[in-house]
Protein backbone atom coordinates (compact mmCIF):
# COMPACT_ATOMS: atom_id res chain seq x y z
CA UNK A 1 0.00 0.00 0.00
CA UNK A 2 1.58 3.25 -1.06
CA UNK A 3 1.24 6.51 0.80
CA UNK A 4 -0.19 9.79 -0.42
CA UNK A 5 0.91 13.20 0.70
CA UNK A 6 -0.99 14.56 3.67
CA UNK A 7 -2.36 17.43 1.60
CA UNK A 8 -3.66 15.04 -1.06
CA UNK A 9 -5.32 12.87 1.50
CA UNK A 10 -6.97 15.64 3.43
CA UNK A 11 -8.23 17.33 0.31
CA UNK A 12 -9.53 14.03 -0.99
CA UNK A 13 -11.14 13.09 2.28
CA UNK A 14 -12.74 16.35 3.34
CA UNK A 15 -13.15 18.18 0.10
CA UNK A 16 -12.01 21.33 1.88
CA UNK A 17 -8.83 23.14 1.00
CA UNK A 18 -6.07 22.27 3.42
CA UNK A 19 -3.33 24.82 3.59
CA UNK A 20 -1.20 22.66 5.87
CA UNK A 21 1.89 23.53 7.83
CA UNK A 22 5.24 23.70 6.15
CA UNK A 23 7.88 23.57 8.80
CA UNK A 24 11.56 23.49 8.09
CA UNK A 25 14.66 22.28 9.82
CA UNK A 26 14.32 19.91 12.70
CA UNK A 27 14.92 16.29 11.98
CA UNK A 28 15.82 16.62 8.37
CA UNK A 29 19.47 17.62 8.47
CA UNK A 30 21.13 14.47 7.21
CA UNK A 31 24.75 14.27 6.34
CA UNK A 32 23.79 14.16 2.66
CA UNK A 33 21.70 17.30 3.02
CA UNK A 34 18.40 15.48 2.48
CA UNK A 35 15.41 16.65 4.46
CA UNK A 36 12.32 14.69 5.27
CA UNK A 37 9.62 17.23 5.93
CA UNK A 38 6.01 16.54 5.00
CA UNK A 39 3.17 18.96 4.55
CA UNK A 40 1.87 18.25 8.04
CA UNK A 41 5.20 19.17 9.61
CA UNK A 42 5.45 15.58 10.82
CA UNK A 43 8.52 13.67 9.72
CA UNK A 44 7.84 10.33 8.22
CA UNK A 45 11.36 8.95 8.12
CA UNK A 46 13.00 7.68 11.27
CA UNK A 47 15.81 9.44 13.07
CA UNK A 48 18.89 7.27 12.58
CA UNK A 49 21.67 7.26 15.16
CA UNK A 50 24.98 5.49 14.60
CA UNK A 51 26.96 4.32 17.62
CA UNK A 52 30.54 3.16 16.98
CA UNK A 53 33.56 2.45 19.17
CA UNK A 54 35.93 -0.35 20.04
CA UNK A 55 34.71 -3.76 21.16
CA UNK A 56 33.57 -3.66 24.79
CA UNK A 57 33.80 0.13 24.86
CA UNK A 58 30.23 0.34 26.14
CA UNK A 59 28.29 0.88 22.88
CA UNK A 60 25.42 -1.42 23.79
CA UNK A 61 25.30 0.04 27.29
CA UNK A 62 25.05 3.59 25.90
CA UNK A 63 22.34 2.51 23.42
CA UNK A 64 20.34 0.85 26.20
CA UNK A 65 20.52 4.05 28.26
CA UNK A 66 19.33 6.16 25.32
CA UNK A 67 16.46 3.73 24.66
CA UNK A 68 15.52 3.77 28.33
CA UNK A 69 15.31 7.57 28.35
CA UNK A 70 13.39 7.68 25.07
CA UNK A 71 10.77 5.34 26.50
CA UNK A 72 7.91 7.30 25.01
CA UNK A 73 9.26 6.94 21.48
CA UNK A 74 9.35 3.93 19.24
CA UNK A 75 13.04 3.06 19.19
CA UNK A 76 14.75 0.01 17.69
CA UNK A 77 18.32 -1.12 18.05
CA UNK A 78 19.97 -2.74 15.05
CA UNK A 79 23.32 -4.32 15.83
CA UNK A 80 26.01 -4.67 13.20
CA UNK A 81 26.85 -8.07 14.75
CA UNK A 82 23.60 -9.38 13.24
CA UNK A 83 25.14 -8.92 9.83
CA UNK A 84 28.30 -10.99 10.29
CA UNK A 85 28.78 -13.30 7.30
CA UNK A 86 28.23 -16.94 8.16
CA UNK A 87 31.51 -18.85 8.15
CA UNK A 88 32.20 -21.54 5.56
CA UNK A 89 33.05 -25.05 6.80
CA UNK A 90 36.69 -24.34 6.02
CA UNK A 91 36.65 -21.07 7.98
CA UNK A 92 34.89 -22.75 10.87
CA UNK A 93 37.62 -25.36 11.16
CA UNK A 94 40.20 -22.59 11.54
CA UNK A 95 38.03 -20.08 13.38
CA UNK A 96 40.94 -18.82 15.48
CA UNK A 97 42.46 -17.46 12.30
CA UNK A 98 39.29 -15.60 11.29
CA UNK A 99 39.32 -11.82 11.68
CA UNK A 100 35.93 -10.75 13.09
CA UNK A 101 37.18 -7.19 13.42
CA UNK A 102 37.87 -6.60 9.72
CA UNK A 103 35.34 -4.59 7.67
CA UNK A 104 35.00 -7.53 5.25
CA UNK A 105 33.54 -9.70 8.03
CA UNK A 106 30.20 -7.85 7.75
CA UNK A 107 27.49 -8.15 5.09
CA UNK A 108 26.85 -4.43 4.68
CA UNK A 109 24.62 -4.93 1.65
CA UNK A 110 22.18 -6.91 3.76
CA UNK A 111 22.31 -4.25 6.48
CA UNK A 112 21.64 -1.53 3.92
CA UNK A 113 18.69 -3.37 2.44
CA UNK A 114 17.18 -3.84 5.92
CA UNK A 115 17.66 -0.13 6.65
CA UNK A 116 16.12 0.85 3.34
CA UNK A 117 12.97 -1.07 4.27
CA UNK A 118 12.80 0.33 7.79
CA UNK A 119 13.21 3.85 6.50
CA UNK A 120 10.31 3.30 4.17
CA UNK A 121 8.01 2.05 6.85
CA UNK A 122 8.36 -1.69 6.28
CA UNK A 123 9.05 -4.29 8.97
CA UNK A 124 12.21 -6.38 8.53
CA UNK A 125 13.61 -9.60 9.90
CA UNK A 126 17.02 -9.01 11.46
CA UNK A 127 19.16 -12.15 11.92
CA UNK A 128 20.18 -13.11 15.45
CA UNK A 129 23.92 -13.76 15.58
CA UNK A 130 25.21 -16.54 17.77
CA UNK A 131 28.73 -15.87 19.05
CA UNK A 132 29.18 -19.49 20.08
CA UNK A 133 28.34 -21.20 16.78
CA UNK A 134 29.50 -18.22 14.67
CA UNK A 135 26.22 -18.44 12.78
CA UNK A 136 23.25 -16.17 12.28
CA UNK A 137 20.76 -18.80 11.20
CA UNK A 138 20.55 -20.93 14.34
CA UNK A 139 17.77 -19.00 16.03
CA UNK A 140 14.76 -17.36 14.34
CA UNK A 141 15.27 -13.80 13.08
CA UNK A 142 13.98 -10.87 15.10
CA UNK A 143 11.09 -8.96 13.53
CA UNK A 144 11.77 -5.24 13.70
CA UNK A 145 8.99 -2.77 13.02
CA UNK A 146 9.43 0.70 11.57
CA UNK A 147 10.11 3.16 14.34
CA UNK A 148 10.65 6.81 15.15
CA UNK A 149 14.29 6.20 16.02
CA UNK A 150 16.67 3.55 14.69
CA UNK A 151 19.97 3.05 16.50
CA UNK A 152 22.67 1.34 14.45
CA UNK A 153 25.40 -0.01 16.69
CA UNK A 154 28.69 -1.69 15.88
CA UNK A 155 32.47 -1.49 15.90
CA UNK A 156 32.63 -0.59 12.20
CA UNK A 157 29.27 1.05 11.67
CA UNK A 158 30.98 4.26 10.42
CA UNK A 159 33.30 2.44 8.04
CA UNK A 160 31.03 2.08 5.00
CA UNK A 161 30.13 5.53 3.62
CA UNK A 162 26.74 4.21 2.40
CA UNK A 163 25.79 3.36 5.99
CA UNK A 164 27.19 6.62 7.35
CA UNK A 165 25.00 8.52 4.91
CA UNK A 166 21.90 7.09 6.57
CA UNK A 167 22.73 8.60 9.92
CA UNK A 168 21.28 11.78 11.38
CA UNK A 169 23.60 11.59 14.36
CA UNK A 170 26.91 9.77 14.88
CA UNK A 171 28.23 8.89 18.32
CA UNK A 172 31.66 7.40 19.07
CA UNK A 173 32.09 5.71 22.44
CA UNK A 174 35.65 6.37 23.52
CA UNK A 175 36.91 4.09 26.26
CA UNK A 176 40.53 3.38 27.16
CA UNK A 177 42.08 0.28 25.62
CA UNK A 178 42.91 -1.33 28.98
CA UNK A 179 39.31 -0.95 30.16
CA UNK A 180 38.05 -2.42 26.89
CA UNK A 181 40.42 -5.37 27.18
CA UNK A 182 39.49 -6.04 30.80
CA UNK A 183 35.78 -5.97 29.95
CA UNK A 184 36.33 -8.14 26.92
CA UNK A 185 38.13 -10.80 28.93
CA UNK A 186 35.32 -10.84 31.48
CA UNK A 187 32.60 -10.92 28.80
CA UNK A 188 34.17 -13.47 26.46
CA UNK A 189 35.16 -15.89 29.20
CA UNK A 190 31.76 -15.50 30.84
CA UNK A 191 29.08 -15.03 28.17
CA UNK A 192 30.88 -16.60 25.22
CA UNK A 193 32.47 -19.45 27.18
CA UNK A 194 35.97 -18.83 25.76
CA UNK A 195 39.23 -19.39 27.61
CA UNK A 196 41.45 -16.50 28.51
CA UNK A 197 44.37 -17.57 26.29
CA UNK A 198 42.07 -17.58 23.22
CA UNK A 199 40.67 -14.17 24.12
CA UNK A 200 44.15 -12.66 24.52
CA UNK A 201 45.37 -14.30 21.34
CA UNK A 202 42.42 -12.94 19.33
CA UNK A 203 42.96 -9.53 20.91
CA UNK A 204 46.60 -9.19 19.94
CA UNK A 205 46.21 -10.82 16.51
CA UNK A 206 43.04 -9.11 15.30
CA UNK A 207 41.15 -6.91 17.75
CA UNK A 208 43.87 -4.40 18.59
CA UNK A 209 45.26 -4.02 15.03
CA UNK A 210 41.75 -3.66 13.61
CA UNK A 211 40.91 -1.03 16.20
CA UNK A 212 43.99 0.98 15.19
CA UNK A 213 43.56 0.48 11.44
CA UNK A 214 39.79 0.60 10.92
CA UNK A 215 37.82 1.64 13.99
CA UNK A 216 39.81 4.53 15.44
CA UNK A 217 40.09 6.24 12.01
CA UNK A 218 36.26 6.43 11.88
CA UNK A 219 36.16 8.53 15.06
CA UNK A 220 36.57 11.61 12.86
CA UNK A 221 33.09 11.05 11.46
CA UNK A 222 31.47 11.30 14.87
CA UNK A 223 29.27 14.27 15.80
CA UNK A 224 29.65 13.41 19.46
CA UNK A 225 32.45 11.55 21.24
CA UNK A 226 31.51 10.06 24.60
CA UNK A 227 34.40 9.44 26.95
CA UNK A 228 33.72 6.77 29.61
CA UNK A 229 30.67 5.35 27.79
CA UNK A 230 27.71 4.58 30.03
CA UNK A 231 29.29 6.36 32.99
CA UNK A 232 28.91 9.65 31.15
CA UNK A 233 25.36 10.53 32.16
CA UNK A 234 25.73 14.18 31.18
CA UNK A 235 26.58 13.25 27.58
CA UNK A 236 23.72 10.76 27.39
CA UNK A 237 21.20 13.28 28.79
CA UNK A 238 22.33 15.85 26.23
CA UNK A 239 22.05 13.34 23.40
CA UNK A 240 18.53 12.35 24.44
CA UNK A 241 17.51 15.99 24.71
CA UNK A 242 18.87 16.62 21.21
CA UNK A 243 17.03 13.61 19.77
CA UNK A 244 13.78 14.78 21.34
CA UNK A 245 14.19 18.22 19.82
CA UNK A 246 14.98 16.76 16.43
CA UNK A 247 12.05 14.39 16.56
CA UNK A 248 9.79 17.35 17.10
CA UNK A 249 7.35 14.96 18.71
CA UNK A 250 5.49 17.71 20.40
CA UNK A 251 5.34 20.00 17.39
CA UNK A 252 1.62 19.40 17.07
CA UNK A 253 1.15 20.38 20.70
CA UNK A 254 3.19 23.51 20.05
CA UNK A 255 1.03 24.41 17.05
CA UNK A 256 -2.21 23.66 18.88
CA UNK A 257 -1.97 24.50 22.58
CA UNK A 258 -5.38 22.90 23.11
CA UNK A 259 -4.09 19.47 22.07
CA UNK A 260 -3.08 17.41 25.09
CA UNK A 261 -1.15 14.15 24.66
CA UNK A 262 -1.06 12.30 27.95
CA UNK A 263 2.42 11.77 29.37
CA UNK A 264 3.69 8.43 28.10
CA UNK A 265 5.04 5.77 30.44
CA UNK A 266 6.09 2.17 29.86
CA UNK A 267 2.66 1.11 31.21
CA UNK A 268 0.93 3.22 28.59
CA UNK A 269 3.26 2.01 25.83
CA UNK A 270 2.61 -1.55 26.98
CA UNK A 271 -1.14 -1.08 26.76
CA UNK A 272 -0.79 0.43 23.30
CA UNK A 273 1.41 -2.46 22.23
CA UNK A 274 -1.28 -4.90 23.28
CA UNK A 275 -4.26 -3.20 21.72
CA UNK A 276 -2.43 -2.46 18.48
CA UNK A 277 -1.30 -6.07 18.10
CA UNK A 278 -3.55 -7.75 15.53
CA UNK A 279 -3.08 -11.06 17.39
CA UNK A 280 -4.47 -9.77 20.69
CA UNK A 281 -7.62 -11.58 21.80
CA UNK A 282 -10.90 -9.70 22.12
CA UNK A 283 -10.79 -10.16 25.88
CA UNK A 284 -7.33 -8.59 26.20
CA UNK A 285 -8.18 -5.89 23.67
CA UNK A 286 -11.17 -4.81 25.73
CA UNK A 287 -9.26 -5.04 29.01
CA UNK A 288 -6.35 -2.87 27.90
CA UNK A 289 -8.47 -0.51 25.81
CA UNK A 290 -10.59 0.05 28.93
CA UNK A 291 -7.48 0.84 31.00
CA UNK A 292 -6.28 3.37 28.44
CA UNK A 293 -9.74 4.88 28.03
CA UNK A 294 -9.94 5.37 31.77
CA UNK A 295 -6.65 7.27 31.75
CA UNK A 296 -7.79 9.49 28.88
CA UNK A 297 -11.12 10.16 30.59
CA UNK A 298 -9.43 11.05 33.90
CA UNK A 299 -7.04 13.33 32.04
CA UNK A 300 -9.92 14.95 30.18
CA UNK A 301 -11.80 15.60 33.42
CA UNK A 302 -8.72 17.41 34.64
CA UNK A 303 -9.44 20.09 32.04
CA UNK A 304 -12.86 20.96 33.44
CA UNK A 305 -13.23 24.19 35.38
CA UNK A 306 -13.35 23.92 39.16
CA UNK A 307 -14.24 26.02 42.15
CA UNK A 308 -12.28 26.16 45.37
CA UNK A 309 -13.78 24.21 48.25
CA UNK A 310 -12.76 23.82 51.88
CA UNK A 311 -13.62 20.76 53.95
CA UNK A 312 -12.93 19.71 57.54
CA UNK A 313 -10.98 16.45 57.76
CA UNK A 314 -11.56 13.82 60.52
CA UNK A 315 -8.60 15.36 62.40
CA UNK A 316 -10.49 18.64 62.53
CA UNK A 317 -8.10 20.30 60.10
CA UNK A 318 -9.11 22.43 57.14
CA UNK A 319 -8.33 21.03 53.74
CA UNK A 320 -8.51 23.48 50.87
CA UNK A 321 -9.38 21.62 47.72
CA UNK A 322 -11.61 21.95 44.70
CA UNK A 323 -15.17 21.08 43.82
CA UNK A 324 -15.95 19.06 40.69
CA UNK A 325 -17.63 20.78 37.76
CA UNK A 326 -21.28 19.72 38.01
CA UNK A 327 -22.74 20.80 34.69
CA UNK A 328 -21.26 18.27 32.34
CA UNK A 329 -22.34 15.46 30.04
CA UNK A 330 -20.82 12.94 27.69
CA UNK A 331 -21.62 12.48 24.02
CA UNK A 332 -20.48 9.30 22.33
CA UNK A 333 -20.01 8.93 18.61
CA UNK A 334 -21.80 5.64 17.92
CA UNK A 335 -20.50 2.99 17.85
CA UNK A 336 -16.86 3.10 18.88
CA UNK A 337 -17.43 6.02 21.23
CA UNK A 338 -19.82 3.88 23.27
CA UNK A 339 -16.78 1.89 24.42
CA UNK A 340 -15.76 5.00 26.41
CA UNK A 341 -19.07 5.47 28.21
CA UNK A 342 -18.39 3.05 31.06
CA UNK A 343 -15.16 4.81 31.99
CA UNK A 344 -16.96 8.14 32.00
CA UNK A 345 -19.80 6.74 34.12
CA UNK A 346 -17.25 5.21 36.51
CA UNK A 347 -15.62 8.62 36.99
CA UNK A 348 -18.73 10.81 37.01
CA UNK A 349 -21.58 9.33 38.99
CA UNK A 350 -24.93 9.61 37.18
CA UNK A 351 -23.54 11.54 34.21
CA UNK A 352 -25.89 12.02 31.25
CA UNK A 353 -24.55 10.62 28.01
CA UNK A 354 -25.95 11.58 24.61
CA UNK A 355 -25.27 9.88 21.28
CA UNK A 356 -24.46 10.89 17.76
CA UNK A 357 -24.39 8.53 14.79
CA UNK A 358 -22.44 9.55 11.76
CA UNK A 359 -22.52 7.37 8.70
CA UNK A 360 -19.80 7.36 6.10
CA UNK A 361 -21.10 7.56 2.56
CA UNK A 362 -18.71 6.53 -0.18
CA UNK A 363 -15.09 7.47 0.29
CA UNK A 364 -15.35 10.91 1.78
CA UNK A 365 -18.91 11.94 2.62
CA UNK A 366 -19.95 11.83 6.28
CA UNK A 367 -23.60 12.23 7.19
CA UNK A 368 -25.06 12.82 10.57
CA UNK A 369 -27.98 10.43 10.70
CA UNK A 370 -28.98 10.26 14.35
CA UNK A 371 -28.62 12.33 17.51
CA UNK A 372 -29.99 12.11 21.00
CA UNK A 373 -28.58 14.77 23.29
CA UNK A 374 -29.51 16.18 26.69
CA UNK A 375 -31.99 19.05 26.19
CA UNK A 376 -29.92 21.45 28.28
CA UNK A 377 -26.64 20.53 26.57
CA UNK A 378 -25.92 24.19 25.80
CA UNK A 379 -25.42 24.77 29.55
CA UNK A 380 -23.06 21.87 30.02
CA UNK A 381 -19.42 21.08 29.46
CA UNK A 382 -19.34 18.26 26.92
CA UNK A 383 -16.94 15.33 26.83
CA UNK A 384 -17.11 14.06 23.27
CA UNK A 385 -16.12 10.39 23.04
CA UNK A 386 -14.60 8.67 20.01
CA UNK A 387 -11.53 6.45 20.36
CA UNK A 388 -9.98 7.27 16.99
CA UNK A 389 -9.44 10.66 15.36
CA UNK A 390 -8.58 9.88 11.73
CA UNK A 391 -9.40 12.30 8.92
CA UNK A 392 -11.30 14.49 11.36
CA UNK A 393 -14.47 14.39 9.26
CA UNK A 394 -16.66 12.63 11.83
CA UNK A 395 -15.27 14.80 14.60
CA UNK A 396 -16.05 17.96 12.65
CA UNK A 397 -19.61 16.72 12.04
CA UNK A 398 -20.06 15.89 15.71
CA UNK A 399 -18.57 19.15 17.01
CA UNK A 400 -20.56 21.20 14.46
CA UNK A 401 -23.74 19.65 15.83
CA UNK A 402 -22.76 20.48 19.42
CA UNK A 403 -21.98 24.06 18.43
CA UNK A 404 -25.33 24.29 16.57
CA UNK A 405 -27.02 23.11 19.77
CA UNK A 406 -25.46 26.08 21.54
CA UNK A 407 -22.50 24.44 23.30
CA UNK A 408 -19.73 27.05 23.45
CA UNK A 409 -16.58 25.73 21.72
CA UNK A 410 -14.37 26.09 24.83
CA UNK A 411 -16.84 23.84 26.70
CA UNK A 412 -16.11 20.86 24.41
CA UNK A 413 -13.40 18.35 25.28
CA UNK A 414 -12.84 15.71 22.62
CA UNK A 415 -11.44 12.50 24.13
CA UNK A 416 -9.81 9.83 22.01
CA UNK A 417 -7.16 7.13 22.26
CA UNK A 418 -5.25 7.88 19.09
CA UNK A 419 -5.14 10.90 16.81
CA UNK A 420 -3.81 11.16 13.28
CA UNK A 421 -2.04 14.49 12.67
CA UNK A 422 -4.35 15.08 9.70
CA UNK A 423 -7.40 14.86 11.94
CA UNK A 424 -5.83 17.14 14.53
CA UNK A 425 -5.17 19.77 11.85
CA UNK A 426 -8.69 19.56 10.44
CA UNK A 427 -10.43 19.74 13.84
CA UNK A 428 -8.18 22.35 15.43
CA UNK A 429 -8.30 24.63 12.40
CA UNK A 430 -12.10 24.55 12.32
CA UNK A 431 -12.59 24.65 16.09
CA UNK A 432 -9.49 26.27 17.57
CA UNK A 433 -11.06 26.67 21.00
CA UNK A 434 -12.06 23.08 21.75
CA UNK A 435 -9.67 20.80 23.64
CA UNK A 436 -8.45 17.44 22.35
CA UNK A 437 -7.11 14.89 24.81
CA UNK A 438 -5.44 11.82 23.33
CA UNK A 439 -3.00 9.15 24.42
CA UNK A 440 -0.87 8.89 21.26
CA UNK A 441 -0.33 10.76 18.03
CA UNK A 442 -0.20 8.49 15.02
CA UNK A 443 2.11 8.49 12.02
CA UNK A 444 -0.69 9.38 9.61
CA UNK A 445 -3.35 7.97 7.30
CA UNK A 446 -2.94 5.41 4.57
CA UNK A 447 -4.51 5.48 1.09
CA UNK A 448 -7.80 4.20 2.51
CA UNK A 449 -7.80 7.03 5.08
CA UNK A 450 -7.22 4.53 7.87
CA UNK A 451 -5.02 5.57 10.76
CA UNK A 452 -1.52 4.05 10.75
CA UNK A 453 -0.04 2.32 12.63
CA UNK A 454 -3.53 2.35 14.15
CA UNK A 455 -5.37 -0.49 15.83
CA UNK A 456 -7.85 -1.61 13.16
CA UNK A 457 -11.62 -1.20 13.34
CA UNK A 458 -11.94 -0.25 16.99
CA UNK A 459 -15.68 -0.90 17.27
CA UNK A 460 -15.42 -4.35 15.70
CA UNK A 461 -12.50 -5.35 17.91
CA UNK A 462 -14.08 -3.93 21.08
CA UNK A 463 -17.59 -5.27 20.55
CA UNK A 464 -16.39 -8.55 19.00
CA UNK A 465 -18.06 -8.05 15.65
CA UNK A 466 -14.95 -8.56 13.52
CA UNK A 467 -16.76 -11.25 11.51
CA UNK A 468 -20.06 -9.44 11.37
CA UNK A 469 -20.45 -8.20 7.81
CA UNK A 470 -23.34 -5.85 8.54
CA UNK A 471 -22.53 -4.26 11.87
CA UNK A 472 -23.94 -0.83 11.03
CA UNK A 473 -27.48 -2.16 10.57
CA UNK A 474 -27.60 -3.49 14.10
CA UNK A 475 -25.96 -0.40 15.51
CA UNK A 476 -28.29 1.96 13.73
CA UNK A 477 -31.24 0.07 15.15
CA UNK A 478 -29.70 0.11 18.63
CA UNK A 479 -28.97 3.79 18.41
CA UNK A 480 -32.49 4.57 17.26
CA UNK A 481 -33.81 2.73 20.29
CA UNK A 482 -31.73 5.15 22.32
CA UNK A 483 -29.57 2.42 23.86
N1 LIG B 1 30.40 1.93 32.50
C1 LIG B 1 30.58 0.63 32.69
N2 LIG B 1 31.01 0.17 33.86
C2 LIG B 1 31.20 -1.14 34.07
N3 LIG B 1 30.98 -2.09 33.15
C3 LIG B 1 30.55 -1.69 31.96
C4 LIG B 1 30.31 -0.32 31.66
N4 LIG B 1 29.87 -0.23 30.39
C5 LIG B 1 29.84 -1.48 29.91
N5 LIG B 1 30.23 -2.37 30.84
C6 LIG B 1 30.33 -3.82 30.67
O1 LIG B 1 31.32 -4.08 29.70
C7 LIG B 1 30.93 -5.07 28.80
C8 LIG B 1 30.90 -4.49 27.40
O2 LIG B 1 29.93 -3.45 27.35
P1 LIG B 1 29.01 -3.28 26.09
O3 LIG B 1 28.10 -2.15 26.38
O4 LIG B 1 28.40 -4.57 25.71
O5 LIG B 1 30.10 -2.84 25.03
P2 LIG B 1 30.11 -2.95 23.45
O6 LIG B 1 28.69 -3.01 22.99
O7 LIG B 1 30.82 -1.72 23.02
O8 LIG B 1 30.87 -4.17 23.13
C9 LIG B 1 29.56 -5.54 29.26
O9 LIG B 1 29.74 -6.71 30.01
C10 LIG B 1 29.06 -4.41 30.13
O10 LIG B 1 28.22 -4.87 31.14
N1 LIG C 1 31.95 -14.79 16.34
C1 LIG C 1 32.44 -13.63 16.79
C2 LIG C 1 32.02 -12.42 16.28
C3 LIG C 1 32.54 -11.26 16.81
N2 LIG C 1 33.43 -11.30 17.82
C4 LIG C 1 33.98 -10.07 18.41
O1 LIG C 1 32.92 -9.19 18.81
C5 LIG C 1 33.39 -7.88 18.82
C6 LIG C 1 32.29 -6.95 18.38
O2 LIG C 1 31.22 -6.97 19.28
P1 LIG C 1 30.99 -5.76 20.30
O3 LIG C 1 29.69 -6.03 21.00
O4 LIG C 1 32.12 -5.77 21.23
O5 LIG C 1 30.94 -4.53 19.50
C7 LIG C 1 34.58 -7.82 17.88
O6 LIG C 1 35.70 -7.32 18.53
C8 LIG C 1 34.81 -9.29 17.47
O7 LIG C 1 36.14 -9.66 17.62
C9 LIG C 1 33.85 -12.51 18.31
O8 LIG C 1 34.69 -12.53 19.24
N3 LIG C 1 33.34 -13.64 17.80
MG1 LIG D 1 27.63 -4.44 21.79
TrEMBL record:
<keyword id="KW-0067">ATP-binding</keyword>
<comment type="pathway">
    <text>Pyrimidine metabolism; CTP biosynthesis via salvage pathway; CTP from cytidine: step 1/3.</text>
</comment>
<dbReference type="InterPro" id="IPR029057">
    <property type="entry name" value="PRTase-like"/>
</dbReference>
<keyword id="KW-0342">GTP-binding</keyword>
<dbReference type="GO" id="GO:2000904">
    <property type="term" value="P:regulation of starch metabolic process"/>
</dbReference>
<keyword id="KW-0547">Nucleotide-binding</keyword>
<dbReference type="GO" id="GO:0009507">
    <property type="term" value="C:chloroplast"/>
</dbReference>
<keyword id="KW-0418">Kinase</keyword>
<dbReference type="InterPro" id="IPR027417">
    <property type="entry name" value="P-loop_NTPase"/>
</dbReference>
<feature type="domain" description="Phosphoribosyltransferase">
    <location>
        <begin position="264"/>
        <end position="465"/>
    </location>
</feature>
<dbReference type="InterPro" id="IPR000836">
    <property type="entry name" value="PRTase_dom"/>
</dbReference>
<dbReference type="InterPro" id="IPR006083">
    <property type="entry name" value="PRK/URK"/>
</dbReference>
<comment type="similarity">
    <text>In the N-terminal section; belongs to the uridine kinase family.</text>
</comment>
<dbReference type="Pfam" id="PF00485">
    <property type="entry name" value="PRK"/>
</dbReference>
<dbReference type="Pfam" id="PF14681">
    <property type="entry name" value="UPRTase"/>
</dbReference>
<dbReference type="GO" id="GO:0044206">
    <property type="term" value="P:UMP salvage"/>
</dbReference>
<keyword id="KW-0021">Allosteric enzyme</keyword>
<dbReference type="InterPro" id="IPR000764">
    <property type="entry name" value="Uridine_kinase-like"/>
</dbReference>
<comment type="similarity">
    <text>Belongs to the uridine kinase family.</text>
</comment>
<protein>
    <recommendedName>
        <fullName>Uridine kinase</fullName>
        <ecNumber>2.7.1.48</ecNumber>
    </recommendedName>
</protein>
<dbReference type="GO" id="GO:0004849">
    <property type="term" value="F:uridine kinase activity"/>
</dbReference>
<feature type="domain" description="Phosphoribulokinase/uridine kinase">
    <location>
        <begin position="48"/>
        <end position="234"/>
    </location>
</feature>
<keyword id="KW-0328">Glycosyltransferase</keyword>
<keyword id="KW-0511">Multifunctional enzyme</keyword>
<comment type="pathway">
    <text>Pyrimidine metabolism; UMP biosynthesis via salvage pathway; UMP from uridine: step 1/1.</text>
</comment>
<keyword id="KW-0808">Transferase</keyword>
<dbReference type="GO" id="GO:0005524">
    <property type="term" value="F:ATP binding"/>
</dbReference>
<dbReference type="GO" id="GO:0016757">
    <property type="term" value="F:glycosyltransferase activity"/>
</dbReference>
<dbReference type="GO" id="GO:0005525">
    <property type="term" value="F:GTP binding"/>
</dbReference>
Amino acid sequence: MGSKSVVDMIEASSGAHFSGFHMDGSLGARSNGQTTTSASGIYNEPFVIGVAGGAASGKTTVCDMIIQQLHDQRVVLVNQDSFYFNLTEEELKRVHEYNFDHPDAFDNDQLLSAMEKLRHGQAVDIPKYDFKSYKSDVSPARRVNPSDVIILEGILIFHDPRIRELMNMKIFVDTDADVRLARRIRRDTGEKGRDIATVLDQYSKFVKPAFDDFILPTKKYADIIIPRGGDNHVAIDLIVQHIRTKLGQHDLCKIYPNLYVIQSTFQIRGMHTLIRDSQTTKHDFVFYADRLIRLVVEHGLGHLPFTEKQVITPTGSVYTGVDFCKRLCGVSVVRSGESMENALRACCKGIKIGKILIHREGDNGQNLIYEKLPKDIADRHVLLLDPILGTGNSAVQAISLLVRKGVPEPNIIFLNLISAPQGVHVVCKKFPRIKIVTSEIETGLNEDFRVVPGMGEFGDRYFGTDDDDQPMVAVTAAAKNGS
